[in-house]
């Protein structure tokens, strides 16, 4: 009988332990100490290390507060975060992106920071852009930690050898230079064409550059008259030029090239031009094939009127509505958005900074970062625009657009059909929304 | 004559019914106590999510607004069946499963035959052959994605140096080649499982039967087809079934190599389901998941009927 009791006790203990594993740390303890749980979603080891160091600083400044950092692998992070938010447990501070803020706030998972942020000592230090993106429909659900913007990475030596006196300024210039450099026999290609995942983003960037004069900068998939950018006559010129880059200046296998292949193509020296976010600067700088004298960056490519649309993507930190430690959680977001931590985080992760005047730092004035400063200093030419990344159909759009892009590259769809498809998609979605 | 007269009278034995009942209850409690963690674990992490998935398949369960998930009946299933992508995905799934299983069976069988007889360092060879099974399918997909890269990949490099091709092949960019490439990766991954299972079955074939057949004049090929294969046919059928189910259910290699591209030409039913999940359309994704489960259950039922027939022979 004793053995039975022992077995039962052991089993119940195990079941209890299983149940306990579903519980999470958090909440203020009886002794007044607070344990926060913070979840990031764009995880990589180097970035996690920086975040951890910043959290250590926060803990040192706030005795009694401990922050546990949860860093799920990037490809599973969103789902894990959704499950945690849905269960209402296990998350106090979280990474919120412009593509996830809509769904998260719609479900009531995010705390509205409106009453807190404007009273922060460092609020006025934020750039106008940073302050603007925090607000949506009268609420503020996150504070950005930086911006992702496009610039053109180019091989200075190959451009010079091809007889050009500088990098391309417009999409037409890019087509000309990339075509001149293309030499498949030498395994040298003009442009790292993105045909795989997220390839549609560069097509849209080209269309926006061609329609910039009539573009609705607050919703950069529409023109000021309310029609979509895909219906504009200039869009046809844009896509024709853009897809010529594939036909004349890219490897045929670029149909399936995503981020890793594009960056590898540039860093191993086989492609001359790459359109990418600044986060690639650190990766290219580590290349053992090309040294720093062989590459640089140039501002985003302009359309026929000499202007370009800079689609700034962003992400930041927010507080979970279900958090039992909102005060401490808000304090943590305030700390991370402060001048020193935010600038450090932006520099270490190659982000456009959120702090006003941070661009004056020599870090941003020199080398590959200078093109970003050049764009920031000329907002008339390089117009910051907001893409509708927070709409409920954004992921559906990404998947559809990528498949249509590949259909054009494989010859089963024309560029005219592509624009008609995309125009119909967005027109119907906008109509359904209203 | 009555039945009572034929049947001998049953001996009335003294049995200890009370003691047996007490022992049985205690015994049952002990078993239940030891099983309870496993039961709780399985119910919690397998059956509850499964039932939740069934529940979601009949609702408009969208990430964008989880505060309202109205009942929609069969609408999610109708949406999937009417989607123009569905026929393409269904055809791709059949190509993916058949194209993966047949080479895996043939190569796995040959590998098992090679490892059957004793030779020096057989253990080392076995470990090397079985190693891929320990690798994550997603990682295998990532590795093959780079191996099949047209410009920097080792596949084209080897083929060029061997003189098989004159120009690099765009493996993952060409629709026909892309399906071939993902199947090659899956074959490499799955051969191991076939080899393990078939080798185990081969080792159960009695030596005396093979020796008797050899004495009777049966050659190697005759012994293989008349003795070995019939002897291990149950294992072969079981292995094919298991791998077919896993291959049907496995999106990771395709997802890592092509994400269903180019232009959806390598999309199978489970990568399609992931696509809906990423859109936040959990209702539609659950409807696909439930449909897959039903198809596989029907498949299993046919298999079990066939197995019963084999065992009755």
From TrEMBL, chain A:
Keywords: Signal, Sugar transport, Transport. Pfam families: SBP_bac_1 (PF01547). The keyword Mitochondrion does not apply. Residues 1-28 form the signal peptide. InterPro entries: SBP. The keyword Signal applies. SUPFAM superfamilies: Periplasmic binding protein-like II. Belongs to the bacterial solute-binding protein 1 family. This is Multiple sugar transport system substrate-binding protein. It comes from Promicromonospora iranensis.
UniProtKB/TrEMBL annotation, chain B:
It is a multi-pass membrane protein. CDD domains: TM_PBP2 (cd06261). The chain crosses the membrane at residues 28-47, 94-116, 128-148, 176-202, 223-246, 282-306. It is found in: Cell membrane. SUPFAM superfamilies: MetI-like. InterPro entries: MetI-like, MetI-like_sf. Pfam families: BPD_transp_1. Keywords: Cell membrane, Membrane, Sugar transport, Transmembrane, Transmembrane helix, Transport. Residues 90-303 form the ABC transmembrane type-1 domain. Belongs to the binding-protein-dependent transport system permease family. PANTHER family: BLR7065 PROTEIN, SPERMIDINE_PUTRESCINE TRANSPORT SYSTEM PERMEASE PROTEIN. This is Multiple sugar transport system permease protein. It comes from Promicromonospora iranensis. The lineage of its organism: Bacteria, Bacillati, Actinomycetota, Actinomycetes, Micrococcales.
């Amino acid at each position: 009988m004793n053995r039975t009791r022992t077995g039962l006790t052991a089993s119940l203990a195990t079941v209890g332990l299983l149940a306990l594993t579903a519980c999470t740390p958090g909440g203020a303890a009886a002794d007044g100490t607070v344990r926060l749980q913070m979840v990031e979603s764009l995880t990589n080891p180097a970035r996690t290390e920086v975040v951890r160091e910043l959290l250590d600083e926060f803990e040192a400044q706030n005795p009694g507060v401990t922050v546990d950092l949860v860093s799920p692998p990037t490809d599973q992070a969103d789902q894990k975060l959704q499950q945690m938010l849905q269960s209402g447990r296990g998350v106090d501070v979280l990474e919120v992106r412009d593509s996830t803020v809509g769904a998260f706030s719609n479900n009531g998972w995010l705390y509205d920071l409106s009453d807190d942020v404007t009273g922060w000592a460092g609020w006025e230090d934020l750039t106008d852009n940073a302050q603007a993106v925090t607000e949506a429909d009268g609420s503020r659900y996150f504070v950005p930690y930086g911006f992702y913007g496009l610039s053109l990475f180019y091989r200075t030596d190959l451009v010079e050898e091809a007889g050009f006196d500088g990098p391309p300024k417009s999409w037409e210039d890019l087509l000309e230079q990339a075509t001149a450099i293309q030499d498949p026999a030498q395994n040298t290609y003009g442009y790292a064409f993105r045909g795989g995942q997220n390839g549609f983003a560069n097509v849209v960037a080209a269309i926006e550059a061609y329609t910039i004069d009539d573009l609705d900068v607050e919703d950069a998939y529409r023109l000021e008259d309310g029609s979509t950018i895909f219906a504009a006559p200039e869009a046809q010129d844009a896509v024709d030029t853009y897809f010529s880059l594939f036909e004349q200046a890219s490897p045929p296998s670029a149909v399936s090239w995503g981020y890793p292949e594009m960056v590898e193509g540039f860093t191993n020296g086989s492609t001359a031009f790459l359109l990418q976010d600044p986060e690639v600067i650190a990766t290219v700088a580590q290349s053992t094939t090309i040294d720093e004298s062989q590459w640089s960056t140039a501002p985003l490519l302009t359309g026929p009127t000499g202007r370009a649309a800079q689609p700034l993507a962003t992400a930041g930190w927010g507080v979970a509505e279900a958090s039992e430690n909102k005060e401490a959680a808000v304090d943590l977001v305030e700390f991370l958005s402060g001048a020193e931590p935010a600038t450090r985080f932006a520099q270490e992760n190659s982000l456009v900074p959120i702090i006003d005047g941070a661009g004056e730092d020599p870090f941003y004035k020199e080398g590959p970062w200078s093109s970003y400063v050049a764009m920031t200093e000329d907002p008339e030419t390089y117009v910051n625009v907001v893409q509708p990344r927070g709409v409920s159909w954004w992921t559906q759009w990404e998947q559809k657009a990528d498949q249509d892009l590949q259909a054009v590259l494989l010859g089963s769809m024309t560029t005219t059909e592509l624009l008609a498809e995309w125009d119909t998609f967005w027109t119907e979605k906008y109509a359904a929304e209203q | 004559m009555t039945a009572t007269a034929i049947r001998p009278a049953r001996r009335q034995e003294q049995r200890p019914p009370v003691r047996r009942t007490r022992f049985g209850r205690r015994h049952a409690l002990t078993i239940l106590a030891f099983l309870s963690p496993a039961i709780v674990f399985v119910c919690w992490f397998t059956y509850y999510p499964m039932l939740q998935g069934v529940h979601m398949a009949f609702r408009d369960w969208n990430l964008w607004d989880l505060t309202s998930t109205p009942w929609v009946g069969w609408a999610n299933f109708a949406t999937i069946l009417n989607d123009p992508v569905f026929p393409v995905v269904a055809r791709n799934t059949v190509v993916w499963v058949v194209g993966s299983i047949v080479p895996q069976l043939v190569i796995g069988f040959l590998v098992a035959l090679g490892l059957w007889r004793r030779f020096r360092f057989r253990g080392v060879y076995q470990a090397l052959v079985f190693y891929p099974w320990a690798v994550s399918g997603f990682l295998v997909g990532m590795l093959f994605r780079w191996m099949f890269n047209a410009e920097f990949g080792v596949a084209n490099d080897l083929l060029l140096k061997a003189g098989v091709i004159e120009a690099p092949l765009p493996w993952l960019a060409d629709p026909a080649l892309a399906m071939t490439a993902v199947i090659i990766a899956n074959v490499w991954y799955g051969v191991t499982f076939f080899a393990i299972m078939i080798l185990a079955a081969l080792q159960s074939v009695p030596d005396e039967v093979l020796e008797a057949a050899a004495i009777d004049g049966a050659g190697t090929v005759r012994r293989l087809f008349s003795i070995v294969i019939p002897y291990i046919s149950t294992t072969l059928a079981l292995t094919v079934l298991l791998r077919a189910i896993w291959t049907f259910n496995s999106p990771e290699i395709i997802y890592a190599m092509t994400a269903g591209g180019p232009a959806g030409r390598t999309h199978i039913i489970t990568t399609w389901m992931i696509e809906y999940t990423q859109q936040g359309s959990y209702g539609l994704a659950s409807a696909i998941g439930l449909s897959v489960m039903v198809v596989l259950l029907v498949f299993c039922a046919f298999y079990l009927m066939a197995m019963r027939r084999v065992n009755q022979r």
